[in-house]
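Can anyone check this?
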Amino acid sequence: MRPKPALLWIHAFLSVNWVVNGVWMIFAPGNWYAQMPQAGDTGPLNEHFIRDYGSVFFLIGIATLLALARRLYSRWMHFWIFMFFVAHAALHVWDMFAGRLPHYHWNTGFILVMLPVAALGALLHPAAWRCETGHFSGGAP
């Protein structure tokens, strides 16, 4: 299954954001840490960790953009990207409930962490996808 043409721009928009965020994290981790709301709540600045995580965002964004450009972006690919962001959001929630992050972290955490998960989850709905007749669709997640 492939995304419907009307929704391709959402996938492209998200991908560009992941690439930009990843580049920012890789090449200016101190600036990213200082500018990202409530990043300081997660502990002291660790440039290596920020670069590691930035490489994940960068690679997810590049892989998605390439798959979109080559018309290879599939529901399975979307599902696994969604699962990465679910795991990321779950760690934020876990840390808040465990007291490792203050509860006010929900304020920006909702917009920067939870909202992307909700958007990616909504884009898993079958209405966002179309079957490619004559092509292997890769099944369904």
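Reply from J.R.: I decoded it. The longest helix spans residues 47-69.
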